[in-house]
Amino acid sequence: MLGVKLPAGETLDSEDQLDALLGRWKNGRSTLVQQGGALAIVSADWKYIEPTKGPAVQKLTGTETGNSENGLSYQLKTDIGERKDVSAQYPQKVRELKALLDQLKAK
């Protein structure tokens, strides 16, 4: 958009989103890594939060932290509020998302 050339290897975690920003494409990113305590990946209608230690809920605010020693996964199409962990029902999807997150972390 700005016509700036970046050196090779400078944008390993980036995707060109200009068409989405300009309204020419409605999908946006295909995969997004999130970090706000626990590391998570969102891909299509799924979210996986990798296992991490710590309290599951902040006592003072009642806010869920995403911390779980087993990890968490959510089917966002039916649970946008991330209320029901579906890891046990979809173990293959959990393995796929974990592998994708591990692959991105290795870069």
Q: What does this protein look like?
A:
There is one protein chain. By secondary structure, the chain is an alpha+beta fold. The protein has one domain (18-106): Arylsulfatase, C-terminal domain (2-Layer Sandwich). The longest helix is centred in the last third of the chain and has 16 residues, at 91-106. Helices cover 19% and strands 22% of the residues.
Quick structural gist:
The protein has 107 residues and is of the alpha+beta class.
Uncertain runs with pLDDT below 50, 5 residues or more?
none
- Percent strand equals 15-25%
CATH topology: Arylsulfatase, C-terminal domain
The largest sheet, given as strand count, sense and whether it forms a barrel, is: 4 strands, antiparallel
Principal-axis shape: globular
Binned, the helix content reads 10-25%
The helix tally amounts to 2
* Total strands: 6
- End-to-end separation: 26 Å
Question: What spatial order of strands do you see in the largest sheet?
Answer: 1-2-3-6
Number of domains: 1
What is the rounded Rg? 16 Å
Provide the CATH top-level class.
Alpha Beta
CATH architecture: 2-Layer Sandwich
Pattern of helices and strands: HEEEEEEH
Helix/strand-derived class? alpha+beta
Which helices and strands, and how do they pair?
Layout: H1 18-21, E1 31-36, E2 38-43, E3 46-49, E4 57-58, E5 63-64, E6 72-75, H2 91-106
Antiparallel strand pairs: 1-2, 2-3, 3-6, 4-5
Give keywords.
4-stranded antiparallel sheet; two-stranded antiparallel ribbon; alpha+beta; 2 helices; single chain; Arylsulfatase, C-terminal domain; 6 strands; about 110 residues; about 20% helix; globular; about 20% strand
